[in-house]
Every structure is written in structure tokens, then in C-alpha cells.
Automatic annotation (TrEMBL):
Main location: membrane
Organism: Streptomyces andamanensis
Protein name according to UniProt: Cobalt ECF transporter T component CbiQ
UniProt xrefs under InterPro entries: ABC/ECF_trnsptr_transmembrane, ECF_CbiQ, ECF_transporter_component
The keyword Transmembrane helix is annotated on this UniProt entry: yes
Subcellular location, record wording: Cell membrane
Length: 253
């Protein structure tokens, strides 16, 4: 799958969670999210227990709370959508602090906030304890279509290449005294975007030719074979297993 690739979400560590095979963590995170989504929205206490389970997992992984909370800011657009739901939804209404709010909208907002936040937190925790290269190996181990794995791999690598090219172009503009401060500078930025597209396309062609000349025939060689023991699977599935128990209690109580 190529050389290692660090990303900003990853936090280097040597915890038991870091040491788990990537495909076990991917399966555990997916199962946890499925269980959370399947929980009835009226079982408010269940979502509190889910948060406790994630906090416990973060403690075992030695991932600080501040590190996770900063990366949870990515869900702000969903929070804004949830805040509007009580105002625009129809049905029975209640008055809170002089505001007329929809009961269905309040439940819908809670449903989006609770399940969305827990899902994002689980994803951030997964990314914090697993490198991108390991995630790709895990997806491959879980029998995701090889073409999708390759697309994801190339997207990650070329994302950094394009970002670095953008940085060099920005430095070149600033070294010549350019500073975008209004509409009249949009033309320069548009030309820069066009030049970036052409450079990226040409670089992609050169890389493809280099790969073909080295024997690339549509599949990437697997350098590391990720395997997991029963104990590792049991350890990884402890989180979704406990969440499943909470979900079943939420449906019966």
C-alpha cells in the first residue's frame, strides 16, 4: 500500500487500542455506529451510557479529551441544522422561553445531535488511534473492493501533493507582493486555480506512466498482511458489544 502516511487526526501512541489490527477497529467503529443509530431516541439515558463507553475507550487509548473535542467541531453544520428543526417542523407545539417550538422538531433535533455527535466521536477516536496507511490495509482486509481502496489511497496521496503545490504557488504570489484583498484580485486567483489543475493533471499522467513502466497492472501489492487473533477481535468488539446491550435495554425498558 505504499509508505506510511501521517495525518493530523492521528495521535501517536502505544496504547492497547493503538496496537489493535486496523480491520478490527474499523469493524468495531462501524458496529458501534449501527447500534447507536438503532437506539430509540426516547432512551435518553442510553446515549449517556454510549458517551461513557466512548470516554472509557478514549482513556484506554490515552487520547486527551481536548484533542477529541477540538476535532468534534467538524459537526458544527449538523448542529446548526438541528437547532433550526424545532422552529420549522410541524405538529404539536410547546412554548419555551416565549418561543413556539415543535415537539417533533425537538425530538428530531435531539436525535440528530445525540447520534451524530456519538458517530463523529467514534470516527475521530478511530482516526486518532489508526494511521491512514493502516486504515487502507484494514479496508483491504475487510474485503472492500480493491478499486475503491486504490482510489482512496491515491486520493490521500494526491491530496497532499495538491496542497503542497498550492502552498508553493501562494508563497510565489506573496513574494511578488500580491495580497488578495478584494474582487479585483479574483482574476489572479482564478488563473492560479487553472494553473494548479493543469499541473496536477500533468503530474498525475507522469506518475501513471511511471507506475505502468514498473509493472502496475491495476492492483497494488500488499506489503503487510494484517491479521488478528480471537483475543484481539474480542477486545475490539467489547465496545460495540456493550453498546448493543444498552440498545436492547433501551428497546425493552
Amino acid at each position: 500500500m505504499g509508505a506510511g502516511h501521517a495525518h493530523r487526526l492521528y495521535r501517536h501512541g502505544h496504547s492497547p487500542v493503538h496496537g489493535l489490527p486496523p480491520h478490527t477497529k474499523l469493524a468495531a467503529a462501524f458496529a458501534f455506529v449501527v447500534v447507536v443509530v438503532s437506539t430509540p431516541r426516547e432512551a435518553v439515558w442510553a446515549f449517556a451510557l454510549y458517551a461513557v463507553l466512548l470516554a472509557g475507550t478514549a482513556a484506554v487509548a490515552r487520547v486527551p479529551a481536548g484533542f477529541l473535542l477540538k476535532r468534534l467541531l467538524i459537526e458544527i453544520p449538523f448542529v446548526a441544522f438541528a437547532v433550526l428543526m424545532p422552529f420549522v417542523a410541524e405538529g404539536e407545539r410547546v412554548h419555551v422561553l416565549g418561543l413556539s417550538l415543535s415537539v417533533n422538531g425537538l425530538w428530531g433535533a435531539w436525535n440528530v445531535l445525540a447520534k451524530g455527535t456519538l458517530g463523529v466521536a467514534a470516527s475521530v477516536l478511530l482516526a486518532s488511534t489508526t494511521e491512514l496507511r493502516e486504515l487502507l490495509l484494514g479496508l483491504q482486509r475487510l474485503r472492500l473492493p480493491p478499486l475503491l481502496v486504490q482510489i482512496a489511497s491515491f486520493m490521500i496521496r494526491y491530496g497532499d501533493v495538491i496542497t503542497d503545490e498550492m502552498r508553493r504557488m501562494r508563497i510565489a504570489r506573496e513574494s511578488r507582493g500580491f495580497e488578495a484583498s478584494g474582487v479585483r484580485h479574483w482574476g489572479v486567483l482564478a488563473k492560479s486555480a487553472g494553473a494548479l489543475f493543469i499541473r496536477s493533471y500533468e503530474r498525475g499522467e507522469r506518475v501513471h506512466l511511471a507506475m505502468v513502466s514498473r509493472g502496475y497492472a491495476g492492483s497494488m501489492p500488499v506489503i503487510d498482511e494484517a491479521t488478528a487473533s480471537r483475543a484481539q477481535w474480542s477486545y475490539a468488539l467489547a465496545l460495540p458489544g456493550a453498546a448493543l446491550l444498552v440498545c436492547l435495554l433501551g428497546w425493552t425498558l
